[in-house]
Amino acid sequence: MSHVTDQLQALGGVASTAQMGARGIAAGELNHAVRSGTIERVRSGWVALPGAPRDVVAALRIGGRLSCLSVLKSHDLWCATDSRLHVRVPARPRNLSSPLDRRVPLGRPERFGVVVHRSRPAPFLEEPDGPIDSFAWALLHSIECQSQNDAIVTLDSALHSQRVSRTELEFLCAGLPKTYRAYLELTDANAASGLETKARLGLRGYNISSLSQVKIRGVGNVDLLVGDRLVVETDGREWHTKPAAYLEDRRRDLALTELGYIVLRLSYSQVMEEWDRVLGVIRGIVARGEHRWAARHRRAGLGTGTELL
Asked: Model pTM?
């Protein structure tokens, strides 16, 4: 490899001419490498190696940076399933181009499977040097981009994984319209999965309150506790399909039943595709008062509270 390609590879295969200059690569060297075909000029001020990440190159060709869900999916956050290319451009963009050819105007971005985000005012966030938005920039734009429930799922995931603090999130959302700032009141840093958040929000929509990640002696944390004794467990596709996890789930269910709890274990598809049916079951339990400890439970020595940690 030449010195130019070595430095460009170290920067992830795509870099600004300013970044290259900071590494001692003069403009003349870059021009020579472009003419020789060693590297390509993606857009004015940006160069890339052949075979550089296609989504990153496409975002630069458009005239922005890779952002929003296109960035967050690489951070293992729960967010909406979306295969489109998310690009943050300046608040007043000029000369946006096709992701395939910078000489062709972008026109309607949806025809290329692109979502263009006009940059939100965020004076406390620094512009990245490279072609990929920072986690904070991506998270900020994801709030408006997704449905309310999906946005709250993403915020819960960011809080629970400690990628962002509550205070940082409040600063981040300060410049958003009131509608989106209100999402913060619905977040719960205790939520351990997006599926759990979806279920919690689904219940809240019918005025059924729940507590996340309640710790019960001999069981551990349960996903949601409705009232005193209705435990709702949400099983994701990955962890809960493993043999050891399957056995552990059954051990927990038996232990909870011994303590007098009602256990409703829900699969991914039941939360995502059969929620109305699930909701009907839970509303029925609540309407009958079965989610509360009754005198008969107390007489049997159940619901004393000593099992709660």
From this structure: 0.90
